[in-house]
Design goal:
Chain A has helices at residues 64-70, 94-98, 101-111, 114-118, 152-162, and strands at 2-8, 13-22, 31-38, 50-54, 84-92, 126-131, 141-147, 171-181. By secondary structure, the first copy, chain A, is α+β, with helices and mostly antiparallel strands. The two termini of chain A are 26 Å apart.
């Protein structure tokens, strides 16, 4: 089941800003359409500015205790009050992908507290992770977040934190696209 | 990058046998074609008996010590002397997929010695693992093995072992397709 994020002049999300945090520039679209969990959708329209594809999957690093904490604030997408969103495509370097599972877990959580630090934001920020690397896509992950306009500063706090973690030393491309539902 | 295994009356692998080990029957094809790492291939031919798709990925459970052992016998596919092959599609139950990473690892290796037991076979049996579940496919994994005709009994020893491990209690469908290169 593949999901697509398509930037063009169509879609119910207005693109407010497109920032290249790391790596090269990224084309700017006026609007964005998110198509969740479709089969056989591999049609790239001629007039799109960009199309990013990925799949949602089982969790790769979370242990049982963390899962119990995470389950207290399940992510619900498409809530009408969450009128702001962010799409953050990320690519990590080869060194990361040559690490073994235990080494990646150690950097992700024991060194960077990716789950531990994020937990306190999750009652206000809904999110969904899509995997892209295995599809031969330009990014490894597409991270999608929805929140209230008034909570954007909270969201910025979270991204500011993550960008200074040891895990982020392995990130070689990161685009930060901010959107508003229309 | 998606790979496909296509059963029809074409392809360079002759299907010697098709056995449903667990779960429902599976259509029988005369020959099989393996298409490795292609993009945009989602075309199902009208006359194929079956088509299974998956992607090769980073290792999900292996730790550094195991990786060092595994690296001693790198899998090389398409060796002319390896004229026999097996394609074994597997589906695990929901209980497995609800387990966390640490719980799955514990069953996979600490309880079942999936890597530890397999190691001694890997100088004679080349293999490649493809992930299918995230694509909405009927199976979760496609496991592909190549070996010499004279080593098939060794291969049977390995599958016999794995089918009696605690990990295999979570397997709800398994097909065992044996092939010969022509």
């Amino acid at each position: 089941m593949i999901s697509s994020f398509i930037g063009s002049n169509e879609g119910n999300w207005l693109v407010r800003s497109t920032s290249a945090i790391k790596g090269s520039d990224f084309p700017i679209a006026e609007r964005m359409l998110r198509i969740d969990n479709e089969l056989n959708h591999w049609k790239v329209e001629k007039q799109v500015q960009w199309q990013l594809n990925g799949f949602n999957s089982n969790m790769r690093y979370t242990n049982r205790n963390e899962r119990k904490e995470l389950d207290k604030t399940p992510s619900i997408l498409n809530l009408p009050e969450n009128n702001f969103a962010a799409l953050i495509p990320i690519k990590k370097n080869d060194e990361w992908w040559q690490l073994t599972q235990d080494e990646r877990r150690n950097i992700f959580e024991e060194q960077s507290a990716h789950i531990g630090f994020s937990l306190k934001y999750l009652d206000k920020i809904s999110r969904k992770l899509y995997h892209s690397r295995d599809l031969g896509e330009p990014f490894d992950f597409l991270t999608w977040f929805e929140f209230k306009e008034t909570d954007e500063s909270l969201f910025n706090e979270l991204t500011d934190y993550l960008r200074y973690t040891p895990e982020w030393n392995y990130v070689i491309s990161e685009i930060d696209i901010r959107l508003e539902r229309i």
